[in-house]
């Protein structure tokens, strides 16, 4: 078990290194001089040279890379060209907003997907099933910004129940935090929830037809026990994986939703960095996304092997 | 539906014989399908007595599984079941799901074909045995675990206590089928239904399972319905055999009577390619299977109006064959001291060969 874990962790580290090389290469091979851009209109040669030297840009690329990756391991991702602030700090500042939104969205998504997907599967072609199909079809096809704007118009505009945007830190005002979270979480949650509903439905439907469900019924178990232990227990296993992927996606920042709700998350940080050609920030963000993705995959694998006795061999 | 005359219930002639544990009369199952109403089971009549094994044979699709699933109320909602099936005096047809639940796994148990998929892969063996026990009686969990270990010992696990914590994938096919049997025995059933329970197992393991069931049956006096394709198994373990075709019983009777003098052309076709002597001592390398009879069985959505076997029958000479369903009539009845004794040998055909 721990050997398996070590092997997986090793694989993840290799992948992460690959991502780091790719990101670094991409940043340094695309045309355009970031330093010139960072200085903007206040250009003068002395400042230009100083900034280049500070950023280590006058060194050969392999040396630059080793320097960057070496400090990255210790948590130092360099400084922003734009603001001169440490990249790590910029990212850490954005984490609470992104993590709050991702967690709340997954919660919303699962609260929709598990009951709706299960009910749809239990009564195929019933009213619930048809309604669920329509709703999730809409959820999948409506663009997030459109959904977000609709929610703002209704719940912030007409009803005035929630703020139309902005993030309130949990530490400052728990109630305000929760209220600020509702609309963006609903927006991303509805989209993720639609995907997960479809998934849950087909997974439960498949589980219902399994031979061991017939065995469970033939034992004389109450319908609830059959559903809980022989249908859902098996059907929701693969949902762990899909949820992990959704969560990784949400944690990488949901740019569109962050724009619509003026949400200071990682997505906006990365977007801003692209616009500014703020390479250190962009490199740091992409590396972080890759790291989160790999870490979540590892966690999902671990969880899976705890839940499915067939895996942990 | 049919103009078939109702048959008198076959009665054991022995004086003071025990009541049948299961008594099925005119059992019918229909299902709505996209291609129309499927008439899957069309009037079955049979009894199962305590300690008796009734084998059900017939080609794939003849309605064997559906007919027993109907008894347990395990068919999909689209199925309509009519007729009666009295289990210990209570009619299973039309029982509410809650009532049926008290019978399932308790009075009647089932063992299915594929031991690889019939157990839940993510729950332990122990858990899968105890949950049935806990659902039927209010015994404490500890006692249920004790009983589960006891059952595993009974079905031949060398280390029953250790086996409780095993997962199905850690066991061989034969061991899994033993677990299925342990689950089936948990409620001390009076009727055990085995639906091709040994088909997926290799010959040696199959023999072990058959022996195990025979032993447990003798110990507990359980009535057994054994669905199989394997006529060697029928000859080896069954007291009586029921031959199904197109959802009907085309022939039934004591195994020796039916095998020695099959009265229905379909049964004769099934037995045609078999060696003359049938028995458990038969060459184990090549268990006798149902032979292929030219043609295909009728679709349950499109049954012929007369005899179901008419389209494939090699001896269809009677004018009634095509138009009128032949009733299930007595061919012979065992005689003891000049008086009829035991259960009759019956067949549903207009042809007279094999009749007295
Ligand atoms: N849920 C269902 N809906 C519609 N038709 C069904 C359903 N289940 C079974 N049938 C049909 O009922 C007929 C009998 O099926 P059944 O499973 O009882 O056959 P069987 O005699 O057990 O065959 P096998 O030897 O292959 O197990 C088949 O034609 C099958 O297609
Ligand atoms: S009734 Fe006629 S068609 Fe049917 S099996 Fe007998 S002889 Fe053949
Ligand atoms: Mg079958």
From TrEMBL, chain A:
Compartments reported by the entry: Cell membrane
Mode of membrane association? Multi-pass membrane protein
Enumerate the PANTHER family for this protein. DIPEPTIDE TRANSPORT SYSTEM PERMEASE PROTEIN DPPB-RELATED (PTHR43163)
Q: Which InterPro entries match?
A: BPD_transp_1_N, MetI-like, MetI-like_sf
Taxonomically, the superkingdom here is: Bacteria
Q: Please name one Pfam family that this protein belongs to.
A: BPD_transp_1
Q: Which UniProt keywords apply?
A: Cell membrane, Membrane, Transmembrane, Transmembrane helix, Transport
List, in alphabetical order, the GO biological process terms annotated in this UniProt record.
Answer: transmembrane transport
Q: Using the record's annotation, list all stretches that form the ABC transmembrane type-1 domain.
A: 95-304
* Full protein name: Peptide/nickel transport system permease protein
- Is 4Fe-4S given among the entry's keywords? no
Q: Which family does it belong to?
A: Belongs to the binding-protein-dependent transport system permease family.
The record's principal subcellular location, in a coarse class, is membrane
Look up the signal peptide feature and give its range: none
Instruction: State a GO cellular component annotated for this protein.
Output: plasma membrane
- Transmembrane stretches, by residue range? 12-30, 99-122, 134-156, 176-196, 236-261, 281-304
Automatic annotation (TrEMBL), chain B:
Instruction: Give compartment(s).
Output: Cell membrane
Q: Which PROSITE patterns did the record assign? A: ABC_TRANSPORTER_1 (PS00211), ABC_TRANSPORTER_2 (PS50893)
Membrane topology listed for this record: Peripheral membrane protein
Keyword field: ATP-binding, Cell membrane, Membrane, Nucleotide-binding, Transport
Protein name stated in the entry: Peptide/nickel transport system ATP-binding protein
Recorded coiled-coil stretches:
none
GO MF, one term, reads: ATP hydrolysis activity
Give the GO cellular component terms, alphabetically: plasma membrane
- Highest taxon listed in the record's lineage: Bacteria
Q: Does the keyword Transferase apply?
A: no
> Which stretches make up the ABC transporter domain?
22-271
Q: Which InterPro entries match?
A: AAA+_ATPase, ABC_Ni/Peptide_Import, ABC_transporter-like_ATP-bd, ABC_transporter-like_CS, Oligopep_ABC_C, P-loop_NTPase
A GO BP term here is: peptide transport
Q: Where is this region: Disordered?
A: 1-20, 321-356
Annotated family:
Belongs to the ABC transporter superfamily.
Q: Which organism is it from?
A: Kineococcus xinjiangensis
Task: Report the SMART domains cross-referenced here.
Answer: AAA (SM00382)
